[in-house]
Design brief:
This protein is α/β, with parallel strands linked by helices. It has helices spanning 3-11, 93-103, 122-129, 131-140, 142-166, 187-207, 224-229, 245-252, 264-269, 272-287, 304-317; strands spanning 25-27, 51-53, 59-61, 70-73, 112-117, 170-174, 211-215, 234-236, 257-262, 292-296. The strands form two sheets. A seven-stranded parallel β-sheet has the order 1-5-6-7-8-9-10, sandwiched between helices.
Length: 330
């Protein structure tokens, strides 16, 4: 069984051979998805101190090694500027040409052709407006927020049409909707502002048979049904310290695959034996009946021996049928 076939079986809860770290994929995302500038130096791999403006006009500054930059300038900090703001055009050749160039290089037998909608809605909008400004606007300027959300999703739909033109099989969406102990929003705000816009994109992809992954950090237990209702196939990173992972698995079993789950804190600080122990526990807790890709619950610049301990443990103990940790010997 190839890695791609195995990943499909994981996602479908259909007797995979082994647990892996994630679906194998070949990225064909548009230019600017990772905050690249049209001209000049910039981007998250830049030297510390670099500043730049991305394709949305958001200003960024690189401050820490191996960590993405921070948004420091918000072109829609005053939402009254929305009527004159120039949204990027998804049909701009500077953005979409990269999709077609990258799609030509994929081996479709080995990997899913994948397109990204990083910062799908909420994160895209708060980078434009500023987080505190946007939080206040839900109450003080709800119609402006609705318009902003709708127009950002119009852009995402335009990008999606290019992705569909090259035949993507997997779409990556993402917004961090939780903090360590709860949601950033009330269920009412999510239902009113977020769900209708997310559904515009996910319905399009589901109509074309495209698998959907969604990244949301933080405490997401209360909105698992929302993710499943809009058609998410794989949810990550399911933070171990922010969620009851037994409850998450019980709710999603047979319905939505999970990815992540191994504590970033544990991987970062070690010791290696504790990383192995937690990885083995997560394999059984989340993956014994399929539907699980085992990996860190955040992306961080981990010490290489620590992240390798996770990989080695996953490879050693991730073949089906899995054994409970107490029955496994090193």
């Amino acid at each position: 069984m190839t890695d791609k076939e195995n990943a499909l079986r994981i996602i479908r809860f259909d007797g995979p051979e082994r647990v892996t770290g994630g679906p194998p994929s070949h990225d064909c995302s548009y230019f600017g998805v990772n905050h690249e500038p049209f001209t000049g130096p910039g981007g998250h791999e830049s030297p510390i101190g670099t500043t730049w403006h991305d394709i949305w006009g958001v200003g960024w500054r690189k401050e820490l090694p191996d960590v993405m930059g921070y948004a420091v300038e918000h072109p829609l900090a005053d939402l009254r500027r929305l009527s004159t703001y120039a949204f990027p055009d998804p049909d701009d050749e500077r953005l979409c040409a990269q999709v077609y160039e990258r799609a030509r290089a994929v081996d479709r037998d080995a990997a899913f052709l994948r397109g990204s909608h990083r910062e799908t809605l909420w994160e895209r909008c708060y980078n434009l407006v500023g987080m505190s400004n946007l939080m206040i606007a839900f109450s003080d300027a709800p119609e402006a927020v609705r318009e902003l959300f709708h127009r950002v999703m119009d852009f995402q739909l335009g990008i999606a049409r290019h992705y569909l033109s090259v035949g993507i099989e997997f779409a990556s969406l993402g917004d961090d909707l939780g903090h360590q102990h709860g949601l950033l929003f009330s269920p009412e705000i999510l239902d009113e502002f977020f769900v209708p816009e997310y559904r515009r994109l996910t319905v399009l992809y589901r109509e074309h048979g495209v698998l959907i992954g969604f990244h949301s950090c933080g405490h997401v237990e209360p909105i698992l049904d929302m993710f499943m209702d809009i058609g998410v196939n794989v949810l990550n990173p399911i933070q171990a310290t922010a969620n009851d992972l037994d409850a998450v698995r019980a709710k999603t079993q047979g319905r939505m695959a999970l990815q992540g789950g191994v504590s970033t804190h544990r991987i970062m600080i070690g010791p290696i034996e504790d990383i192995r122990r937690e990885t083995r526990h997560r394999l059984w807790q989340l993956g014994r009946d399929g539907g699980y890709f085992c990996g860190p619950d955040q992306g961080m610049p981990f010490p290489e021996p620590h992240i390798q301990a996770l990989r080695d443990t996953r490879d050693a103990f991730g073949a089906y049928p899995l054994s409970p940790p107490e029955e496994v010997t090193a």
